[in-house]
Model the fold of this input.
Amino acid sequence: MSWDEFECRFYDHSLLPLRKVNIMEFLESEQGDMSVADYSAKFNEFGWFVPSVFIDELLEDVKF
Done:
């Protein structure tokens, strides 16, 4: 198996399901009883999992 094939299989098997879970958690997140600072930190944490959402500043403003 080549390195490229290993990377693809590893991503599909291990990282893709985790990313999907984090995307859903990001889209369903609400501030609730968190402070603005805590919510902002959570928002930035999810940026790694959902980079395409951060590109559209309009969506960012609407969601948060």
